[in-house]
Specification:
Shape: globular
Radius of gyration: 19 Å
CATH topology: Purple Acid Phosphatase, chain A, domain 2
Helix content: 25-40%
CATH superfamily: Metallo-dependent phosphatases
Distance between the termini: 33 Å
Number of helices: 10
CATH architecture: 4-Layer Sandwich
Structural class: alpha/beta
Strand content: 25-35%
CATH class: Alpha Beta
Order of helices and strands: EHHHEHEHEHEEHEHEEEEEEEHH
């Protein structure tokens, strides 16, 4: 018998002041402090996965708004990648609505930075050949196939002659890929970028797609894009869904404090001596993004486990009340049917 643990988090949106907090006196960046308090939980898993909702598009002019959608476009210093590796991330999914923010060149450069830092990725591709390669992780003898898709790219078109750059939500294609992958692995994991932003419940399309993909062989379905948590559901010993894992790293969005709260989801997977694989335990660690000033007078952004934060001394009443509200909110949403 073999047993492993998978850890999963939601959106990694490393935005303006988080980037400025990471800037060092010499002009370089250090993102290690951002993950220092959650890294022990991420590293103890046998496989850790998250959604990279930014790009490593390189130097040059940074545009704040997309001329097509009017929405923000994201770019982060390359130094984030080694910090993610050091924190314990094994796989990053890259199919999301911001993957084309800096065009095909920004998308391809992002993947090259991940490759350089030995972080596996899926959802976008540098070439036709890479788009045909399915990510399969062998974790202590349990094989896990990982697929990733996005509902859109913020109206930024994928070049007609490079459709393989981004895995879009195409129901028939996804079903074919699940079925083909099912023949090769013990477990099929889908990471879907779908749903309505800032909604705490999945919409009809999310539910329909989840049911369809379960019917065709998916075992674990993880969601992102709403920027807030949505419920989880355990369906027997073989199927699990988290409709939205919320934001793992983010500034406050739309003045909603819960856009800075998320979870580290943990799933225990067992493979018995007959080769049957099952999900034996589901748990989660509530997290939030905290910004504080160091003794040296510098701002620092950090992702913290809420339970650990509540044990800290010197919390203001306002901060303690907010953390308790986040904790209750997380519990209420996760358990909502």
């Amino acid at each position: 018998m073999t047993e492993i643990q998978i850890a999963a988090v939601g959106d990694l949106m490393v935005k303006r002041y988080i980037i400025s907090d990471a800037k060092q006196s010499g002009g370089t960046y250090s993102f290690t402090p951002l993950f220092a308090k959650v890294a022990p939980y991420l590293r103890q898993a046998d496989l850790t996965i998250g959604n990279l909702e930014t790009t490593f598009a390189g130097n040059g002019q940074e545009c704040r708004k997309s001329p097509r959608s009017g929405g923000p476009i994201f770019k982060c210093p390359d130094e984030l990648a080694p910090a993610l590796k050091e924190a314990g991330f094994d796989v990053l999914v890259t199919a999301n609505n911001h993957c084309m923010d800096y065009g095909a060149s920004g998308l391809i450069r992002t993947l090259r930075v991940l490759d350089r830092n030995e972080i596996d990725h899926t959802g976008t591709s540098k070439s036709v050949q890479e788009s045909k390669n399915v990510l399969i992780k062998n974790v202590k003898g349990i094989t896990i196939g990982i697929l990733s898709y996005t509902s859109g790219t913020n109206r930024i078109p994928v070049p007609v002659n490079q459709p393989w750059l981004v895995n879009r939500v195409d129901t028939n294609k996804i079903i074919r890929e699940i079925r083909n992958l099912k023949k090769k692995v013990d477990l099929v994991l889908l990471y879907m970028h779908f749903g309505n932003e800032y909604r705490y419940t999945p919409n009809k399309r999310q539910k329909r797609l989840v049911n369809l993909f379960f019917k065709n062989g998916a075992n674990i379905i993880l969601g992102s894009h709403p920027h807030v948590l949505q419920p989880i559901a355990v369906r027997g010993m073989k199927r699990f869904v988290s409709y939205s894992l919320g934001n793992f790293v983010s500034t406050k969005l739309k003045n909603i404090p819960y856009t800075q709260s998320g979870i580290i989801l943990t799933l225990k997977i067992k493979k018995d001596n007959s080769g049957n694989t099952s999900i034996t335990n589901v748990d989660y660690i509530p997290t939030c993004v905290n910004r504080r000033m160091t003794n040296g007078g510098k701002n620092i952004s950090e992702v913290v486990p809420i339970h650990d934060a509540l044990r800290s001394t010197g919390l203001t009443t306002e901060r303690r009340n907010l953390l308790n509200r986040m904790l209750k909110h997380t519990s209420d949403i996760i358990k909502r049917k």
